[in-house]
């Protein structure tokens, strides 16, 4: 990193290189951390954080599910995020709040173990190379975890081992990303993204019944679509529906709105980003960059 970077941890800023933990830290050993992914964008009025309140609400909810005492209110964490972005000074960045058991005693129990909270803001570009032209996906042989196994509404570190193994399988097959099915065989989500398909000018996305993480970018696209009088249907989706869809795309903090043009080597629609995907993507980009009067409340200026 060219400019000096800082990380907020437990109420104070430390140099990027000095943000360290013991190798036996509980959350490193057992995946017991919780986190969020947030983007800040360059706008004509300065750097703006996208849907900060909603992201921090989800972090607080995840902590509640796991009985993790953060030691900070949602508002304090929001303020700390703004200060972290301000101190690091990027025009745009990826923000990673992370809470973890900062304790090097061996053992699964979290009782009595210290919780630390950190916030980083780092430079970040497009998540998928060549995303403008669309990406390829593979339906994973690994299924998405379900609520009988782990809380799927929580954004916890350990959940993402499921995503990692599916993503690696996709990469070995020459695809850009994986699509996971739910335990009952319906489409769930990408390895780190929610998924939408377009069929006969209708927008369709897997419902909560498919064990998805309820994404904030997903919610944003649904609200933008509603403004355009584009019908949105949340339901269970058969995997073969993906193959015959007119368009398919991912949404997520990292992925933003990414067209999917090939699944399991089958071209989707025309094999190019579709008109509805492109329109929603353009609308989303205008909103996050402050170039639209719509949904101005989604931006927190630094």
Overall 3D geometry?
globular
The total strand number stands at: 17
Portion of residues in beta strands equals 25-35%
Label the CATH architecture of the largest domain.
Alpha-Beta Barrel
- What's the CATH C level of the largest domain? Alpha Beta
Annotated CATH homologous superfamily of the largest domain: D-amino Acid Aminotransferase, subunit A, domain 2
Main beta sheet: 9 strands, mixed
Counting structural domains, the number is 2
Characterise this structure.
The chain has 302 residues and is α+β, with helices and mostly antiparallel strands. The chain has two domains: 6-122, Aminotransferase class 4, branched-chain amino acid transferase, N-terminal domain (D-amino Acid Aminotransferase, Chain A, domain 1, 2-Layer Sandwich); 131-288, Alpha-Beta Barrel (D-amino Acid Aminotransferase, Chain A, domain 2), CATH 3.20.10.10. It is built from seven helices and 17 strands. The chain has helices at residues 26-30, 52-65, 74-88, 160-172, 216-227, 239-243, 275-288, and strands at residues 6-9, 12-15, 34-35, 38-43, 46-50, 93-101, 115-122, 135-143, 177-181, 187-190, 194-199, 202-206, 232-235, 247-252, 256-263, 266-267, 299-301. Strands 8, 9, 10, 11, 12, 13, 14, 15 and 16 form a nine-stranded mixed beta sheet that branches. Strands 1, 2, 3, 4, 5, 6, 7 and 17 form an eight-stranded antiparallel beta sheet that branches. α2 crosses α3 (74-88). The two termini are 21 Å apart. The mean pLDDT is 96.
